[in-house]
Amino acid sequence: MPLINSESTLSRQDLAERWLRCRIFKGMFSDELAVQYAPPHSNSTSVFVPKELVEGSVDGEGRVKVRVFHEGSNAWAVLPTENQMIIAVNEADLIS
Range of 9's domain? Predict the structure, then answer.
């Protein structure tokens, strides 16, 4: 799936907080976890995020809190990383 930089000019008026299904791994520091989002038929994305924005068990399935917006038929998630990485996501992987 494509990813874009947070400085993109995409319209983001309708940002909504949602949960994104992911796999959870131990982070480098005690206050963070690594999450991996791997949509079907696309490359996975792995990032470090604050521990308090993740639910689930290390080395298992879980979810990470993201901000979501839509452009055309695409759903995009703003990951809670330092640089606010934006990735395309499957709507079915978003949880209210």
Answer: 3-95
